[in-house]
């Protein structure tokens, strides 16, 4: 890269490599909508008429039930780690979809339960107040309802534990392992859909479609969450090579393995790492690569925030590593322009560091803005300076003043530093508050939203 | 990175879902045009059968059996409608064409309707006892039965050819006890065909080598199947009469019931033939 001198020819060569890949989010959302319309149509075509209020309640229960059954499959699919979702749409966005559609689905399940049981109670000559007794009766009388009741209870428990205030009080690992019970809940609630669902009892095609939907989601989960990681780890056999303290509180872990460049990881992506050391086997955490993958070496750089990240410091060389990935869409594929500004906040430097090293570009095309509390907190600074010098890239930092005053990052200061900022693609990684501030400053400086690429794991 | 408004999103999603469902529900008609026409068509079909050269007409007048359908009586759990066959001034048969169904109602209906039918035939009037545990259904039944009796009276005793007459077919099914019709109308009940959703059993009335009436004495029930049964059985009855054999089309959306129906129908035809 360093041999490419600046100038027009070099820029043209750079641009030729830029083929921004569109996120498949919009077609995917359209497909999801079409599926929902199909589910509604299924109900529509199987319901000749609605005579009275009682039937209205029952039919509202059927619609909510059908939609919940459909969305349930998609909620699981979103977490199946399908590469198209993880690497093209972006793991962060998919995780937010998952949280959103999960909440919506649980609400639909609740509405379905109440409406159907209310409708049955009315039919039996009872009132809304007898809904609990009616639910018990239905569990006893209708097929697969016992299973469905357990599954629904699990779903509500999982939904409750995933609510912000409750979740923050639990350890991530505890929460995660309880969350895995969703698979059991979905399995348990599946059967009553087919055996008591009006639409499935009479429409064999609908049954086939439902089996197809749940079957393919199951296959994808098994393939991408179990078999793919097994294959990846058997092939690459990763181990901890060394642990290096970069700054107080930030460590880099070097991971060796076989043919690591064949994993298809790109700069800007991350893996979910599980270190097979005592006390760490059960938890798997996402950390970005802080350097471009080399054939025999990967590197992650981690700030000690939680138990897991703090324990990384004490990893012994030779510890087996189980990785899943690569995930993440914050890669060179997002780029649409020749000029790129990378913005890093704190330990958000890790993917930016890898991109700074690898994004194709002529001298003067790349700029990295690095925000940290103090100059001592600027981890990997020496490497960044070396890359900047070698590539003819600009490197800037913003730290608090000695009095602890925050640096001024606004539309004006950004425009002053980079007069042609509105012609840049911006890649950004940092804590949510910082990212929000920079985003607004960038928009103010004239950078269109579609050229600000950002990953955030805030729900 | 656009500012997210979680609360606004929740309200929007909730409002959109609720209004979507309310819209869907309100777009559905209150009564089913398809099944209403199927029910209306069934008697006409049997009339057509009787008008055929082979003997239909012969049976009709000799007994003066007449089928009259009463008004729909609305009950708390749904509509009740009764159809009676009157012959010689007596109710020879009483059956329901509409009855509350779905979930618990099905159980109640299943338990009470045979008793009410029996009582109606025995009493010969609408002055019948309510079935305990099914007081609403019984009341609706009596109301519809009374209106059917009124209609039968109004149309004038035993005169044949009133609208919707199913003629000998019905009298045949009641005929096991008394009134033997002039022609050899014979009622045969097929064997029970088990389907995934329950038993299906068909009873046919054969007269002059033709099926003049076909009805299901058993069909899948229970919560969710009976909506389908209500839709499919009238069509299947109609088809059986029209085809004159068990080679009838399955009703789409009720494949299992249709298959069971055909099986039982075939066995009834075998019995009738032998």
Automatic annotation (TrEMBL), chain A:
The chain crosses the membrane at residues 25-44, 64-84, 104-125, 145-163, 175-194, 209-227. One of its GO terms (cellular component) is membrane. This is Ferric reductase. SUPFAM superfamilies: Ferredoxin reductase-like, C-terminal NADP-linked domain, Riboflavin synthase domain-like. Keywords: 2Fe-2S, FAD, Flavoprotein, Iron, Iron-sulfur, Membrane, Metal-binding, Oxidoreductase, Transmembrane, Transmembrane helix. It is found in: Membrane. It is a multi-pass membrane protein. Its cofactor is FAD. It holds the Pfam family Ferric_reduct. Residues 233-333 form the FAD-binding FR-type domain. GO terms for molecular function: 2 iron, 2 sulfur cluster binding; flavin adenine dinucleotide binding; metal ion binding; oxidoreductase activity. The keyword Ribosomal protein does not apply.
TrEMBL record, chain B:
Residues 32-50 have a biased composition (Low complexity). Residues 76-152, 196-272 form the FMN-binding domain. One of its GO terms (cellular component) is membrane. Pfam families: FMN_bind. Residues 155-172 have a biased composition (Gly residues). GO terms for molecular function: FMN binding. Residues 32-66, 152-179 are annotated as: Disordered. InterPro entries: FMN-bd (IPR007329), TAT_signal (IPR006311). Residues 51-66 have a biased composition (Polar residues). This is FMN-binding protein.
């Amino acid at each position: 890269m360093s041999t490419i001198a600046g100038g027009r020819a070099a820029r043209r060569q750079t641009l030729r490599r830029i083929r921004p890949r569109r996120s498949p989010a919009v077609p995917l959302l359209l497909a999801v909508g079409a599926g929902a319309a199909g589910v509604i149509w299924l109900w529509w075509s199987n319901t000749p008429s609605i005579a009275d209020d009682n039937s209205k309640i029952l039919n509202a229960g059927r619609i909510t039930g059908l939609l919940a059954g459909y969305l349930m499959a998609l909620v699981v699919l979103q977490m199946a780690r399908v590469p198209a979702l993880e690497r093209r749409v972006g793991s962060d966005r998919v995780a937010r979809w998952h949280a959103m559609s999960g909440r919506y689905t649980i609400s639909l399940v609740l509405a379905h339960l109440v409406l159907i049981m209310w409708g049955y109670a009315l039919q039996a000559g009872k009132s809304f107040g007898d809904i609990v007794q009616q639910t018990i009766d239905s569990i006893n009388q209708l097929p697969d309802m016992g299973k469905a009741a357990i599954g629904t209870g699990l779903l509500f428990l999982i939904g409750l534990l995933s609510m912000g205030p409750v979740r923050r009080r639990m350890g991530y690992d505890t929460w995660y392992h309880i969350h895995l019970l969703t698979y059991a809940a979905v399995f348990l609630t599946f059967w009553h859909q087919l055996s008591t669902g009006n639409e499935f009892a009479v429409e064999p095609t609908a049954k086939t479609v439902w089996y197809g939907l749940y079957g393919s989601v199951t296959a994808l989960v098994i393939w991408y969450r179990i078999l793919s990681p097994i294959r990846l780890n058997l092939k690459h056999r990763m181990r901890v090579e060394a642990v290096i303290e970069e700054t107080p509180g930030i460590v880099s872990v070097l991971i060796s393995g076989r043919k690591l460049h064949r994993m298809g990881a790109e700069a800007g992506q991350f893996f979910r790492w599980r270190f097979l050391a005592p006390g760490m086997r059960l938890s798997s955490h996402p950390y970005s690569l802080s350097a471009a993958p080399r054939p025999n070496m990967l590197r992650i750089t981690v700030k000690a925030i939680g138990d897991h990240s703090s324990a990384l410091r004490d990893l012994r060389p030779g510890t087996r590593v189980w990785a899943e990935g690569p995930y993440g869409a914050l890669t060179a594929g997002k780029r649409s322009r020749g000029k790129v500004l990378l913005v890093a906040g704190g330990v958000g430097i890790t993917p930016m560091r890898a991109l700074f090293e690898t994004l194709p570009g002529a001298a003067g095309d790349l700029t990295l803005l690095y925000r940290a509390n103090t100059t001592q907190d600027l981890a990997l600074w020496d490497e960044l300076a070396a890359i900047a010098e070698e590539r003819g890239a600009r490197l800037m930092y913003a730290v608090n003043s000695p009095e602890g005053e925050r640096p001024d990052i606004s539309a004006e200061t950004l425009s002053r530093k980079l007069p042609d900022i509105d012609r840049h693609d911006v890649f950004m990684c940092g804590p949510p508050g910082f990212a929000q501030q920079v985003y607004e400053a960038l928009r103010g400086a004239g950078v269109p939203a579609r050229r600000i690429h950002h990953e955030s794991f805030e729900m | 990175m656009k500012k997210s408004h979680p609360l606004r999103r929740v309200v929007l999603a909730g409002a959109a879902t609720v209004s979507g469902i309310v819209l869907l529900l309100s777009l559905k008609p209150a009564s089913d045009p398809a099944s209403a026409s199927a029910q209306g068509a069934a008697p006409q079909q049997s009339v057509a059968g009787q008008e055929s050269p082979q003997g239909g007409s012969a049976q009709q007048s000799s007994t003066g059996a007449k089928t009259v359908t009463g008004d729909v009586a609305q009950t708390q759990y749904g509509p009740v409608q009764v159809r009676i066959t009157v012959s010689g001034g007596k109710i020879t048969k009483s059956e329901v064409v509409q009855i509350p169904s779905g979930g618990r109602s099905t159980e109640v209906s299943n338990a009470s309707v045979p008793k009410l039918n029996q009582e109606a035939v025995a009493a010969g009037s609408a002055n019948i006892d309510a079935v305990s545990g099914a007081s609403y259904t019984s009341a609706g039944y009596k109301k519809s039965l009374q209106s059917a009796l009124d209609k039968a009276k109004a149309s004038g005793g035993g005169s044949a050819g009133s609208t919707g007459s199913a003629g000998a077919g019905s009298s045949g099914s009641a005929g096991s006890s008394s009134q033997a019709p002039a022609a050899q109308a014979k009622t045969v009940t097929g064997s029970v065909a088990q389907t995934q959703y329950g038993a299906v059993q068909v009873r046919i009335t054969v007269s002059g080598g033709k099926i003049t009436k076909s009805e299901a004495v058993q069909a899948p029930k229970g919560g969710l199947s009976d909506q389908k049964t209500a839709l499919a059985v009238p069509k299947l009855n109609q088809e059986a009469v029209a085809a004159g054999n068990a080679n009838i089309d399955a009703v789409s959306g009720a494949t299992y019931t249709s298959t069971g129906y055909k099986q039982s129908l075939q066995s009834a035809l075998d019995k009738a033939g032998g």
